[in-house]
Design brief:
TIM Barrel; 10 helices; binds NADP nicotinamide-adenine-dinucleotide phosphate; single chain; oxidoreductase activity; alpha/beta; NAD(P)_OxRdtase_dom_sf; NADP_OxRdtase_dom; eight-stranded parallel β-barrel
Length: 301
């Protein structure tokens, strides 16, 4: 496993696990996924307070706790969506200092850890009081409640503001070989955590089913027919779609945040990730050359 070091000296595995789609309720399966990931060298696990209204944190944290004696484990979580855990509903977007301070303690308790390794703002707009949010993250860091902070965003204006006015260590953003919009946010001083690298399974050997089930209406930048064409182009290469998708992220020097819903998926993805090493930089550059460069049109100014 290769690791990448953040500006505040945390090492993050280049292949990390996104916990959003874990099969909550099936503890054995989740435990199998976590163990498999750890044995492969994964040291970073991404969750959020909002995922299943606190249940994701409360499940993943204690399960990972059992492995902490033997493995280096870092947990990242996110904040900003105020929710009612009893009613299981979102109340509002709330990036205020007061709320973040309270939410950080709640997340720490649910996760059962003394300090949150990475705390990311779960979105945000340019209208927020961003300076207050930044000051709150800095203070949480100073008090040792969190070790690093970052943002999860696809908004250029928000990302630019944080880059210029804060010490964000990470940026989580949507990036894959077909959804190239995130390329313009890459920055050598900030570790990019790329989500959506397999596009919900579209970039996998299940692409025909996934296209019909999840992409009937296309996706940002592509109609259904354009996606079909792109998949035909990619399947002409002598590599699995997963390996092409992983090699692209590796070539972009980002962390691949892989989301899975079963241990079998993770096992397959690890195999494809290892196979991706057989794809040369020249070949992935050639493949990327066949794909359009996209930009998000909104939230730029
Ligand atoms: N705003 C944010 O901050 C934000 C938003 C989204 C995600 N995230 C984080 O990023 C992580 C990854 O995002 P994502 O879940 O959207 O990424 P993704 O990798 O595009 O999608 C994951 C889904 O792809 C499918 N999949 C994975 N491997 C597969 C395979 N080998 N064959 C077929 N299907 C496969 C599974 O779908 P099925 O469940 O249908 O099996 C899995 O749940 C999340 O877990 C979460 O931690 C953050």
């Amino acid at each position: 496993m290769k690791y990448i070091i953040t500006k505040d000296n945390q090492s993050i595995s280049r292949f990390s696990l996104g916990c959003m789609n874990l099969p909550l309720g099936n503890t054995k399966e989740i435990n199998d996924i976590l163990r498999l990931a750890l044995e492969f060298g994964v040291n970073f696990f991404d969750t959020a307070d909002l995922y299943q209204y606190g249940r994701n944190e409360a499940t993943v944290g204690p399960l990972l706790h059992d492995y902490m004696k033997h493995f280096d484990i870092k947990i990242g979580t996110k904040v900003g969506n105020e929710f009612d855990s009893a009613l299981r509903e979102k109340i509002r977007w709330n990036p205020s200092g007061d709320y973040i301070n309270r939410a950080a303690i709640d997340s720490k308790l649910r996760l059962g850890i003394p300090s949150i390794d990475l705390y990311q703002l779960h979105g945000g707009t340019i209208e927020d009081n961003i300076d207050e949010t930044i000051a709150t993250f800095e203070e949480l860091k100073r008090r040792g409640i969190i070790k690093s902070y970052g943002i999860s965003s696809i908004r250029k204006n928000v990302i630019d503001y944080y880059k210029e006015n804060s010490n964000i260590a990470t940026l989580m953003t949507d990036l894959s070989i077909l959804k190239t919009q995130g390329e313009e946010f890459l920055d050598e001083n900030i570790v990019t955590l790329a989500r959506g690298g397999l596009m919900q399974g579209l970039l996998s050997n299940k692409h025909e089913n996934v296209l019909e089930k999840k992409f009937k209406k296309g996706t940002y930048g592509y109609t259904y027919d354009e996606l079909k064409q792109m998949l035909m182009m990619l399947t002409d290469y002598n590599h699995s779609l997963e390996s092409i998708a992983f090699k692209y992220l590796d070539y972009m020097n980002v962390v691949t945040l892989n989301g899975v819903s079963s241990a079998k998926q993770l096992e397959q993805n690890i195999g494809h990730y290892l196979d991706a090493e057989s794809i040369s930089n020249d070949e992935i550059k050639e493949i990327r050359g066949n794909i359009k460069t996209l930009y998000y049109e909104n939230h730029r100014e």
